[in-house]
Task: structure prediction
Amino acid sequence: MDNDTPMDEPNRPDSPARAALAAQTNRRVFLRRASALTLAIPGLGAALTACRPEQPAREEHAGAGGTVPQTAAARDSVGVHNPDSKLDTAFHQGGRAPSTVAPAGTPVAPFARFDPALPPLSTGRTIDVHFHARQVPIQISDDTVVAGWTFDGNIPGPIVHCRVGDTVHFTLTNEMDVPHSMDFHAARINPKVAFRSTPKGESVSYHFTPRYAGAFLYHCGTSPVLMHLGSGMYGAIIVSPRETLPRAREFVLVHSEFYLGSPVNGVRPFDYGRMLSELPDAVTFNGRPNQYSREPIRVNTGERVRFWVVNAGPTLSCAFHVVGQQFDTVYLGAPPSSAIHGVQTFSVAAGGGMAFELLADIPGEFPFVNHEFGHGQKGATGFMVVG
Result:
């Protein structure tokens, strides 16, 4: 092209259109990079949102059956896992990292050993479960009271026991100022409908039929999930198989981490910033450090023992091990299939669950631990006394 030939206006290096395009591109790159920091820097997301140009308000109405029209669903299908998470969350606190400070004067739930025994099955094939989201200070050791976000006032929440093929009718009633929800890992269901958040004073209900046997986690699924799950809103649902398993003494152990702030009126809040650090103050089986060292699990010589181990996390794995024993059977998937034998230690991922079996044929005291000892020695240790 001859140097004297004029360029099209949009392609000129100094044209307003080209400058505007470059500015827009640079801004998109900045926002994309900065958005990766929003989980690490609470409040940054709100600041970035404030920088965006004003958009017209959008109204959406549920169609038949309570579903969102396809156009809206398509717009919201990426990055929106809980449709009501915008109602939450603890991030509406002026950009501070949230914590679970208990209201002054709230009665403290005294220390009580969490019963690890698996509850018996219902005689019926339909199970009604109704939980309440409550903020309760709970004493988890001689010198520690935590400001728990709970299901039914305890950490972990109640153990649910059903069979493959049972119908579970579930209702969550929220008694807290912050919205909450319920995510059952044993359910196969549309999470945007069933696992939606509910505000204070309201309830959400749904039903599901477990397809697979196993040890499953349930937890609050409201954003940020790390904050809600890490503050005590979790528990175990054990789904027994249709096939009969060997007769055994059955126990449920929910492994979890505690990330705590400084005491406020004698109560330690759960701290979101510390959750992000992945350096827990305590690691527990069933919500109290070392409780089964003080009050062991007791079985008779010759009994088969089955541990249903659920790892609530929210982040770390649990390398489950019984000192002085081996597991003759570990179910990798739904019992009784997928069994492996002669296992010393097996890791249960955060959000996962497994069944471990052994024959208690030797009298004695057998520690059960998270063999990742940097975590096990923070409280994830107990004793099984045989004989």
Helices lie at 16-35, 44-51, 70-76, 191-194, 225-230, 272-277, 291-294, 373-376. Residues 16-35 form the longest helix (20 residues).
